[in-house]
Fold this protein.
Amino acid sequence: MALEPELFDALLDTVRRFVAERLRPLEAEVEAADAIPEHIVEEMKALGLFGLSIAEEHGGLGLTMAEEARVAIELGRTTPAFRSAFGTNVGIGSQGLVIAGTPEQKAHWLPKIARGAIITSFALTEPDVGSDSGSVKTRAVRDGDVYRLNGTKRYITNADKAQLFTVMARTGEEAGGRGVSAFLVPRDLPGVSIGEPENKMGQKGARVADVIFEDVPVPVKNRLGAEGEGFRIAMQVLDRGRLHIAAVCVGVAERLIADCVAYASERKQFGKPIAEHQLIQAMLADSKTEALAARALVLETAAAKDAGGNTTMEAAAAKYFASEMVGRVADRAVQIFGGAGYIADYGIERLYRDVRLFRIYEGTSQIQQLIIARETLKRGG
């Protein structure tokens, strides 16, 4: 159920001011330290950001997809690492539980997730399994009242601080996704260990690491859904997650465009601001047009999802277009800033590196193309 318009407007205004006044001034510090200050995380908890997508009955804000998308656009106006601090709680780390959890599982975990008392992670990718996500090799073997879980997950966002993992593991012998099941795996179970955080190209402050499971005894009651339903759950989780990421891409693009307009209006060459040169204007026009198109696609798809429609194709299209779009906008931003865009002082080069990941995680652009084509053929056009 949507918030009352005045309440949602107040939330949106609060998030907008939080981004501008609290987060953007800390971008360089987060980049240098590869960590988000704990006091900022606590402020995020107080604002309810960890529970945006979790129902009010479980302590969250219970936003609709359309509302969540608009909040995500605002959060995109700063380094994406800030959003990642609570992004897994809002999206892929909690939505499997929201979609397929039993009443008991939801009552136990969701209130803690919503208030940020625990951090969640989504463990699907493996050393040899990425885009072909139905081929997971991590295995869970039933042993009485537990499953014995063995395997390694790779590039898991927030793994270093997560207390709960949604893990996809093979429980059957059927090929592909039909043999995959989903499990809630607390970090404190014996046999769970975390690798060292990876040194990444961008999005410093949002850490990823391996998660290793060695004969971990996962209670049967921690399984999400029935055996063999894990792949279906994962795909539903990713449908929503892709739309959220598309909205963040729109926000980053709008931030970059605003920075370009401010710089081009002040920077002078040939006796006048570079904003008055037509080739600069052309780059601004292309960026603005693409950002507007992405925003419209994201919000329309979010509304369709809220209405109960099948938005698998549209969510993939939104993620594909928006992630590719923001890459082009970032590239033009570097060009407009010239040498200054290549230097860390302005933050343009940081965002240029940050946005590259959007075309990879939660399904590469190539996977989105396959989904879009498959769904188009299925629908007959």
About this structure: The chain has a mean pLDDT of 96.
